[in-house]
Amino acid sequence: MASASFSGAAAVSDLLRSSCNSVNGEAFPLRSLGRTRLGVGLRRDRRDSDAGVVVAKIRKEKRHDYPWPGTNQIDSNAKGGQLSYLSHFKPLKEKPKPVTLPFEKPLMDLKKKIVDVRKMADETGLDFSDQINSLETKYQLALRDLYTHLTPIQRLSIARHPNRPTFLDHVLNITDKWVELHGDRAGYDDPAIVTGIGSIDGRSYMFIGHQKGRNTKENIERNFGMPTPHGYRKALRMMYYADHHGLPIVTFIDTPGAFADLKSEEIGQGEAIAHNLRTMFGLKVPIVTVVIGEGGSGGALAIGCSNKLLMMENSVFYVASPEACAAILWKTSKAAPKAAEKLRITASELCKLKISDGIIPEPLGGAHTDPSWTSRQIKIAILEAMDELLKMETPILLQHRMLKFRHLGGFIEGEPVEPSKKVNMKKKEEAVVPKEHTLADLNLEDEIEKIKQQILNSRTEAASQTPDPGLHEMIEKLKEEVDQEFTEAARTMGFMERLEALKREVAKAGSSAEKPLDSSLKERIQRVRQEFNESLPQYPNFASLNYKLNMLKDVLKAKKASEGNDKALSLKQEVNKALKSVLERPDIKEKVKLLKSEISDAGVLRSSDVDAGLKERILKVKREVESQVATALKTLQLSVEVVAPKADIKSGVELFQQPPYADLGEEWKIWRARLPRGSWTRSSQRTSTTK
């Protein structure tokens, strides 16, 4: 905190007359003083108690965060020009989280299951592409059927979707240049209504629309798209401005209604809406209104008195929300679906009643699934409507707008019906339109589970599955095609004659193991091969040759790996069979049985308690078993090496703990189980088997 004092003879105005004054001997610039607040007070100076002293206190203020960036950060080629930097509406830092509506959950679950099935198929390496493509086609049919037969309350939930594009999202997508205008010239700027001037294809328009937030923070700032009287007066000012300068007006409706708090009613909410209604019927410029979300009551109509009213496919327009209507008529908001159906709030119903003049299509799933495409459709619809309205003279334009609203609600009464007939008249049943591709009819869940089971079964069958007999034919065909491609490449690039000459020389030399090729001939062959490989990429059909060559390599590699796995599996089965035949021999069984009885009779609990004679008999039986196993394995053309036991073996009983062929199959467990439990520990003798 800085302070400056001066004598009472000087006035505060003296301080402000010059750009730099000396206060207590220090230079103080007026420019910095002008940005501060002055706290002025009187106090007594210690040296001169009679003289009054004025004190100016300079307070540090928080700098205002203007939207305009630094000079070095401005992109002169930015869409909308440099004035676009003035807008507070910036791209979101985080992508909005996907929101699934209640009626979308069954389809979303099916989509996840289809993704899981595709992953399972990729993991197994089997081809289930046809089945998965069929599932996805049926899923798309079910999705299309769902969104073409939405109920009114479901369309209302899409119109209220948190990720639905807002007014500014569409305006920034469809305009070439855009500048936002603020304020109602009475000291207020309602953020729930946004106004500005934008150009489309070289023609300027005045845009006015309700603005909702894209997240909770923005919704609070925008008051959830519910304007106060200040917002409607701002819109009214821009309408006068557009009428004065001849700018066509485009309004966007997306509000649940005008803000109905006590303060808004006190400052004239109804008067502001009524003033807008009266004024819009007298504007001499074309007006087009687009309902992009929900249009609620007078809050929507205050900027909706137009020549053309266009509605998005999943937008709604109502005098009271279905929840409020249900609470009034049926005393519960749970009847909202019934109220939505009776109110006829959807675009298709309002088109039949001649309230809406057209429907703008949306992508499957709603506008939030593809905002750019939706904005393009809005742009096309606006330009078509404006091209039609701009051809009208001013009196015809005003008459057109008046007649549009005068015709609303008209109906023709039918001929009178006799009471007796009226009593006996049966209500006409509505025609039921069959749904060809409903979710229940398609049985997608059953098909997904069926394909999952097929993939799981294929996993178990993959190991034992024999190679395809057509695989060899395919490999031979690929080899022939590759040879033909190489021959054609050599002929095209002029190597054919040199290769034929080398071939004749090699045949003439008659190479063999005793008589190798001449070193000069080898060098020539190597040189021609190198030149051919370097020139091969210039071959016109090199891409096809390279593709076939890589395919042949992959197929041969896969075949080799498959044959290796099959050989290993068959070898394991043969080894187990040989081991089982040895262990099942009657003499071996008898000897093992005798050893078990001897160990049991001796009451041996630890290996150190075994006497020398029993150890010797155990070692003898073990060597005999090893010899028989080695002989059986040699019949399988295996090289068997028996490793001699270590000299420091503590006990022969330990040799039965881990025999050398323990990892060759389940038969070792059978043989080991025949020995008494607790009478042996880990073995130190090993037998290694190598192919």
Automatic annotation (TrEMBL):
One of its GO terms (molecular function) is carboxyl- or carbamoyltransferase activity. Its EC number is 2.1.3.15. It comes from the Eukaryota. The keyword Phosphoprotein does not apply. GO terms for biological process: fatty acid biosynthetic process; malonyl-CoA biosynthetic process. It is an enzyme of class 2 (transferase). It catalyses: N(6)-carboxybiotinyl-L-lysyl-[protein] + acetyl-CoA = N(6)-biotinyl-L-lysyl-[protein] + malonyl-CoA. Signal peptide: none annotated. Pathway: Lipid metabolism; malonyl-CoA biosynthesis; malonyl-CoA from acetyl-CoA: step 1/1. GO terms for cellular component: acetyl-CoA carboxylase complex. Keywords: ATP-binding, Fatty acid biosynthesis, Fatty acid metabolism, Lipid biosynthesis, Lipid metabolism, Nucleotide-binding, Transferase. Residues 134-388 form the CoA carboxyltransferase C-terminal domain. The keyword Acyltransferase does not apply. PANTHER family: ACETYL-COENZYME A CARBOXYLASE CARBOXYL TRANSFERASE SUBUNIT ALPHA (PTHR42853), ACETYL-COENZYME A CARBOXYLASE CARBOXYL TRANSFERASE SUBUNIT ALPHA, CHLOROPLASTIC (PTHR42853:SF3). NCBIfam families: accA, AccA_sub, PRK05724.1. This is acetyl-CoA carboxytransferase.
